[in-house]
Design brief:
This protein is α+β, with helices and mostly antiparallel strands and 188 residues long. It folds into two domains: 141 residues, Jelly Rolls (Sandwich), CATH 2.60.120.10; 45 residues, no CATH class. Helices cover 50% and strands 22% of the residues. It is built from nine helices and eight strands. The strands form two sheets. It has a four-stranded antiparallel sheet with strand order 1-8-3-6. A four-stranded antiparallel sheet has the order 2-7-4-5. A hairpin with a 6-residue loop joins strand 4 and strand 5. It starts with a helix and ends with a helix.
């Protein structure tokens, strides 16, 4: 739980009182790899701080799933659009490794916003971070080649190759597994 406080302290200094309120709402959940955390059509009920592990966000398809994002340890993870709107999720979230989550329910997060001095600051920072990640991804899809997206992914998260199956990486960068094999041959 201390990792969460450290992460949050980088956003805004937090009083012991605010931390007590925040931490009292957290529940810990250990999840094995290959577990679906959020199914398409379900409403996201949790904002989770992922202490350890990797998850992928994807749209299930009959022939091939479309992976559009990954989330890693020491970051928040959620079907955030569903969480905010209280509506059904158009995608799924699955663990790729064993994952340790510290979760807040939607209602508990509303209480944190209302009862702490830093709740609104943390919320704004989380929204800004999500916006920046989505904007970066969108611009990369419009401007970069698949090869450049592959290289960028491993520049930013170099240990990925050990944990993420190549078929998910291929989907994420917008190529077939065979196309990813050609890219990997070219750059080695």
């Amino acid at each position: 739980m201390e990792k969460i406080r450290e992460y949050l302290e980088h956003i805004a200094p937090m009083s012991d009182k605010d931390w007590q309120i925040f931490s009292s709402k957290l529940t810990k959940r250990k999840v094995p790899k290959h577990t679906v955390l959020l199914k398409r059509g379900e409403t996201e009920n949790y904002m989770s701080f992922m202490e350890t592990g990797i998850v992928r966000y994807y749209i299930p398809k009959d022939d091939n799933d479309v992976t559009f994002s990954f989330s890693f340890g020491n970051h928040f993870t959620s079907g955030y659009d569903s969480f905010l709107t209280r509506g059904p999720s158009p995608y799924q979230i699955e663990t790729l490794t064993d994952v340790t989550l510290w979760r807040l329910t939607y209602n508990d997060l509303q209480h944190i916003y209302a009862d702490t001095e830093v709740g609104q600051t943390m919320a704004r920072h989380a929204c800004e971070a999500i916006f920046l990640l989505k904007s970066k991804r969108e611009l990369s899809l419009l401007n970069d080649t698949a090869e450049q997206r592959y290289l960028n992914l491993f520049t930013e998260e170099p240990y990925l190759i050990k944990y993420i199956p190549l078929k998910y990486i291929a989907s994420y960068i917008g190529v077939t597994p065979q196309g990813l094999s050609r890219i990997r041959r070219r750059i080695t």
